[in-house]
Design a protein that fits this description.
Helices cover 2% and strands 46% of the residues. The strands form 6 sheets. Strands 24, 25, 26, 27, 30, 31, 32, 33, 34 and 35 form a 10-stranded mixed beta sheet that branches. Strands 2, 4, 6, 7, 9, 10 and 12 form a 7-stranded mixed beta sheet that branches. Strands 16, 17, 18, 21, 22 and 23 form a 6-stranded antiparallel beta sheet that branches. The chain is mainly β. The chain has 3 domains: 150 residues, Immunoglobulin-like (Sandwich); 102 residues, Immunoglobulins (Immunoglobulin-like, Sandwich), CATH 2.60.40.10; 126 residues, no CATH class. The protein has 2 helices and 35 strands.
Length: 394
């Protein structure tokens, strides 16, 4: 199940500054080598960063040939010193004869030369051994996000989107900020299943293999990809819009924009069989999975998992793995119905140690309902979740 599988990997502190590499597309003309620019960016997370050092590793088919100063370093009067401590590694030191803080933005642009005849695929650029310093020379932890160069294959068919639906209910309709969605189509990704990865900065990556999904040009966190279906999380930046245009980019080729309406909320409950109907993804009070052979008692509190709650307070952060310190609650009121009766809601918001966009609702089973193995469950957040979701009650 999606909502169990994402609780893996180490999570860096949300307050740690991060250095990131972008991904670029290299389209060679006539089999010749081609140079592309890869940006190195800083997100300081509110920290005061005065100096930075890190290593960038690369493959022989895509070496770094030059490094140019970014605008944030120019304004802070910093310099870049580059060296090659070993083959395939470029070490960059960013420092200046001052204590000026480095602003968020582009630290440097790397010119990467893709060899003539390089096979289609992704040529990664890894970012390691990163450390930063504050204006007084004190060390600051520094997280990193890798990048790379994509060489598209000759005659790669353009991806095509045929439908976008809620990943819990598979209902086609408006999308909400932070909603986990399923995108169907053709030539969306490699045929082999690729699953979510957590970056060193503690975020779900926005690229898997050679696939990226864009909402109005904003990369979306990806949970899995196959050739004909993928799952992404709608960026919170679409909040307040009436429509968003979705595109899938695979091996450097983009699909036509697929317009989808945007709603405040689009709630749905996950089901254990991943069909959108039947036994819900519900955890009993003792931490066990609810089901016909493991019913919950009336009066117990159960946790119901869904998505589509919309914008949150505080505002949602794309792709973050939510820690107890980062819990957010939906802006809209959440109510629950179990067995046709209103259930007391004790908590509604982020699911701890899971990706933002996965909703957890803790509700008490009404004492007055009849026991049964297929008791209807719905959540309402502006709109109601799909019908046909059930739980077992004794």
């Amino acid at each position: 199940m999606l909502w169990f599988s994402l609780a893996t990997g180490s999570v860096a502190s949300a307050a740690a500054p991060a250095v990131s590499l972008t991904q670029a597309i290299a389209v060679a003309q006539g089999g010749a080598s081609v140079e592309v620019g890869i940006e190195v960016t800083l997100a300081s997370a509110g920290q005061t960063v005065s100096a930075i050092q890190f290593d960038i590793s690369y493959l022989n088919q895509a070496p770094i040939v030059s490094v140019s100063l970014g605008n944030t370093l120019t304004s802070a009067a910093k310099s870049i010193w580059a060296s090659t401590p070993e083959p395939g590694v470029e070490r960059l030191l960013i420092v200046g004869l001052n204590q000026a803080a480095i602003a968020d933005g582009v630290l440097a642009t790397l010119s990467v030369e893709v060899a003539a005849g390089a096979a289609p695929g992704v040529y990664p650029l890894g970012l390691t051994n990163a450390i930063a310093a504050d204006p007084w020379g004190g060390p600051l932890p520094l997280s990193t996000v890798d990048g790379g160069v994509v060489v598209p294959g000759a005659g790669v068919p353009a991806p095509a989107i045929s439908a976008v639906g809620n990943a819990a209910s598979y209902a086609i309709g408006p999308v909400a900020p932070g909603e986990i969605v399923a995108v169907a189509g053709s030539s969306l990704a490699d045929s082999a299943l690729a699953t979510a990865r957590v970056t060193s900065a503690g975020f779900i990556a926005t690229s898997l293999g050679s696939t990226t999904v864009l909402f109005d040009g904003i990369p979306a966190p990806l949970l899995y990809t196959t050739a004909d279906q993928l799952s992404a999380i709608v960026p919170y930046e679409v909040s307040g819009q009436s429509q968003t245009a979705i595109q899938v980019e695979y091996q450097g080729v983009r699909s036509a924009p697929f317009p989808v309406p945007v709603a405040l909320t689009s709630p749905a409950v996950f089901t254990l069989n991943e069909s959108g109907a039947g036994q819900g993804a519900i955890v009993n009070q003792d931490g066990s999975i609810n089901g016909p052979n493991n019913p919950a008692a009336r009066g117990d509190v159960v946790s119901i998992y869904g998505t589509g709650e919309g914008q949150t307070l505080p505002a949602g952060t794309d792709g973050i793995i939510v820690t107890p310190a980062d819990l957010c609650q939906p802006v809209q009121t959440v109510t629950v119905s179990i067995g046709g009766e209103s259930a007391e809601v004790l908590y509604a918001g982020s699911a701890g140690n899971q990706v933002a966009g996965l909703l957890q609702v803790n509700a008490r089973i009404p004492l007055g309902i009849a026991p049964g193995t297929a008791t209807p469950v719905t959540i309402t957040i502006g709109e109601s979740s799909q019908t046909g979701v059930t739980m077992a009650v004794r």
